[in-house]
Amino acid sequence: MMIKPRLLYQSHQANRRLSFQERTLALSLPIWSERSVRRQLGSQKVKAKKHQIFVPRSAQVSSPLVTHETTETDDSFKVKAIVNVKLAKAGFLSSLSLDRRIDDIIDLLGKSLLLELVSSQLDSETGEEKVTMEAYAHKGKRREEWVEYVADFQVPKDFGEVGAVLVENEHHHEMYVDTILLHGFPHQDPIPIHCASWVHSKFHNPTKRVFFTDKRLYRGKWRFGRNRSYIPSETPGGLKRYREEELRNLRGNGEGEMKSFERIYDFDVYNDIGDPDKSLHLQRPPLGGRQRPYPRRCRTGRPPSDADPVAEKRVGRFYVPRDECFSEVKELTFSTKTLHSVLLILLPTLGRVIRDKDLPFSYFHDIDSLFSIGLDLPHSENLEQEKGLLSAVVPRLVRPINNDSSPSSPPRDILRFECPETINRDRFFWFRDEEFARQTVAGLNPFSITLVTEWPLRSKLDPDIYGPQESAITSEIIDKEIGGLLTAEQAVEQKKLFILDYHDLLLPYVSKVRKLKGTTLYGSRTLFFLTPAGTLRPLAIELTRPPMDGKGQWKQVFTPDWHSTDVWLWRLAKAHVLAHDSGYHQLVSHWLRTHCVTEPYIISTNRQLSEMHPIYRLLHPHFRYTLEINALAREALINAEGTIESSFSPGKYSIELSSAAYDLQWRFDMESLPADLIRRGMAVEDPFQPHGLRLTIQDYPFANDGLLLWDAIKQWVTDYVNHYYPDPVLVATDQELQSWWTEIRTVGHADKKEEPWWPRLQTPKDLIGILSTIIWITSGHHAAVNFGQYAYGGYFPNRPTIARTKMPTEDPSPKEWEKFIKKPERELLKCFPSQLQATRVMAVLDILSTHSPDEEYIGEKMEPSWGEDPVIKAAFERFRERLKKLEGIIDERNRNSKLKNRNGAGILPYELLKPFSKPGVTAMGVPCSISI
Length: 932
Ligand SMILES: [Fe+2]
Fold this sequence. Notes:
By secondary structure, this protein is an alpha+beta fold. It contains 29 helices and 27 strands. Among the domains are: 189 residues, PLAT/LH2 domain (Lipoxygenase-1); 40 residues; 285 residues, Lipoxygenase-1, Domain 5 (Lipoxygenase-1, domain 5, Up-down Bundle). α14 runs parallel beside α26 and α20 packs antiparallel against α23. The longest helix is centred in the middle third of the chain and has 45 residues. The protein is globular. Bound molecules: fe (ii) ion. The site of fe (ii) ion has 7 residues, from α14 and α23.
């Protein structure tokens, strides 16, 4: 649906007198372009000679200083609009393009942008929309990267308040419009409209863009500001149609392939992970649907694959709506750019350096050399450009090194990793059991540790397929490991027994994963005991293989023992569990529960909530760059044979496993921090405690810091929602809000739409709960699992992503057993990721852990629309103060020697939920959004 306001008046712009000397401008153009230029110039006199276009000077408007004949009269006043356009960094070639030169002519003609002012009020007599005012904007001043376009209007005095500006871009290229300033309206001068958006060329799409002014009645006075916030029922009459049409434009018609300039937000299933047209072994089943439930992604509309009609072709760029991608305007995409370079250039280069992709590290000091010596990147004529690019884009990883023996030779590029802070502090941190346990509450994946509430442990899987359900971890084993302090039953009763349970989730995948080359899998259970010191101690690991290949179920319990054989078996079992935890962390705690589930929230927010809606304004900062980074993940991270598939234990079933976790475990109502802690038995409700919760492990750094952050978010959201919904009934009657929540539940998360646990949205309290959860996921939850990835995973023996060999005790041949007995260290290194897998993952983790220089941290930046409203401004300032205080509290906690899970010799303090950070790899800082 196009926005086509009824136009009765024209501004005087078209008839104004222009006083400058007559001359012509000649531009050289290919002959085939002349028709296009003539079309632009309309009836203007144009001469063409030898592929040159001569534009009469009388047809040009080149200076904003020209006096326009708009005057103040009894029934009208003059208004000047200044549009600030930021020049795109499109590069030299682009600036020489034909369309650019035609656009230059258009600028000279003074018809660069067509603006229309829209009154927010209806005509008092007819009850219909007032006539819009239209004028062309011409090119004005240029300052570095900015260009002003200026338009003059003669506005009738009965026009009323301006509510919106429609913009039509007459150029052949899109333009990034940052602001529009309207000078001359009586109530405020100027009226700023902050657009911060790409405006497509009218030749791509004739629909005009609408930008709403921000004006609201506050305590009897009109207040202007960046973007108005109106719930739908309060929308001024003159803007209602524009509000609805803009949303229809953003929703699109569900047809066709998306083009790069479009702003359409729509849904689709994950059917572009595989690439069957390239090779049938890259075919992957679509995720999303009854068989493999999954959240929906942003629709790209590419044609179906030739080889597999349910898959989408992987051709061209992965579309994201235009305003989700700012790369040509600012250096805002530091993170995505660097990740893009690492995934698409560095990782393939590594494949050329380490040709045997299965080659293990021979010695531990070979791993250390990645931090001290590094890897020579190949020197090849056709790689020169890539090499220079890498050292420029990822200088932390790739550095040029001069050849000392031959100074005249060109410098070599070396991939050398920074030493992670964990290993800087304690070289053997990864080896210690207490550190293994500590990281379950203060490490990279604090979302898995769960209280044991039933004893003995039993599987819920079908015994006919997976074998006996009873765990091999018996009371006797636990009694012995606890050392007489308590019996297993007493430990359960007293809430002292905890588990990392990857048994029922992984066991169904064991048989098929074991058919893949270079990997293996078990179901696993790891038990921990909460010591009187408040720390966890690992007690036992159980690894299980289901019946397969004619063999019965195999399971074995490993314990931290004193005999050398048992010690090495324990280390190997730990490597398996760590690989399970690494996979679960990356695929579920990180990808699924933050990046993936948030995509439907973003799509629905843009499709159903007008940008004037206060809830759109609240959520918008929390969605920055997420669609773009998720598209990049589909392109090169979670795709068939991408980094995840080639480096994690489940191999090509990795992403499918996140679908299983979504199916079995994910519930929106359990995603808030308090609900998540209660669900895992890590907290119980207690109204007398500060957060209304009593933690099962008192010193649980993630939970302790997270609850302060959660409370701060919830209070801010409460203040915000209560301000805009003073009457509770307004939530239930807000049609946009209701459509938003319905679409999230039934379309974005379509495979879960029948679930009874979805929160209702009837009251401000319901809305506060929903919004706090979404904001927590995009900020605190994501930061907790993202920015410590290099600190904890950079030295991969601490968190191997894959365990490649089975345990030496599982049906060993005499030769296999002898090899283990003779050289157990070698067997551990063979079980760890290969050299290629390890270095690839290290490079990716380094980038994923990096804060870009333009990172926006939670509570840091006051959105202009919030600053315009004194109540919201004050609430945000209180929020910011709370977060600043949280910084100090976390520092204080890390200094407290009684808190042994975050303070001790060689221990990395827990800072992942400290709100602010400097750029780089810091293992702290909570950005507003999932931007990497
Ligand atoms: Fe992330």
